[in-house]
Amino acid sequence: MENIEEKVFEELKKLINKKYNKNVELNTVLNETGIDSLDLLDLVVEAEQENGVTITDDELVSMKTIEDVVKAISTKLK
Q: What is the mean pLDDT of each run of 10 residues along the chain (78 residues)?
């Protein structure tokens, strides 16, 4: 079975590519993608709904990379 983080990353990568036409890697810094805080909030809400988890405002504010988003969601799925 695929690692939870890998699965979350692949879902997030597809979502970002579809919505923003951006290709990202785990180490991609969010503010270098052109994805602003409102876009990030939209992505996180969609990921929350898809995975049945809740990300706190504090977690959201601390997200700097794609990996931060993946870890925040993955840890709630374990």
A: 85 91 92 85 88 91 93 88
